[in-house]
Amino acid sequence: MAADPLSRDAFAAALRALAPRYWDRHPFHRRLHAGACTPGEIRSWVANRWYYQTILARKNAAIVANCPLPEVRRRWLERVTFHDGPHDGEGGLADWLALADAVGLDRAALLDERHVTRGTRFAVDGYLHFCQSRPWTEAAAAALTELFSPQLMAARVTAWQQHYDWIKPDGYAYFQHRIPVVRADAQYTLDLVLTQCRTAGEQQAAIAALTFKTEVLGAILDAVDYQKGVP
Prior knowledge:
This is Pyrroloquinoline-quinone synthase. The protein is an all-alpha fold.
């Protein structure tokens, strides 16, 4: 006998209940926000996160490509533009380059990915493949880590300004631009997943997708923590 689907409220609660798996509770993240990281460790985090940032427009484009609903495609396409920018030198990737400059990362070293760990590469490539190959609703559900991210990004800016006064102020542009956008995106995505995932199987697949995404983010921090900083 097939299981009954969760109610909308119970489904939302099950997704939100994954918050303890988010990477804000990782030991490295706690040290990062407590002011206990060296400049080299912060540069390692920025360099490895750069590799993650570079696939976001592509994974969002995969969701657009796999989604049969034009109203969703139009809304989701905004995420591609946010990261790639409407023009060269604009958008989330450009802002991340500014952050790399602000923490003293060599631009050439960032772009040739010499500091990207194999653990980060494996996790990020796996996430991109997941979004390209799984049903679009699962890929959208995996993006629901954005439910947990606005508060963390705001706390990061405050903590870094307090503990790492050597970071140049213009490096915070990414977080300042992203926080209001991700708040709106999170609510939209939650409503979308709650509406589109109607059967018990679809709901469990969405919960598994979000669980997988938390594993991806945790694996990135495991790798960064192991790296112990970069020049």
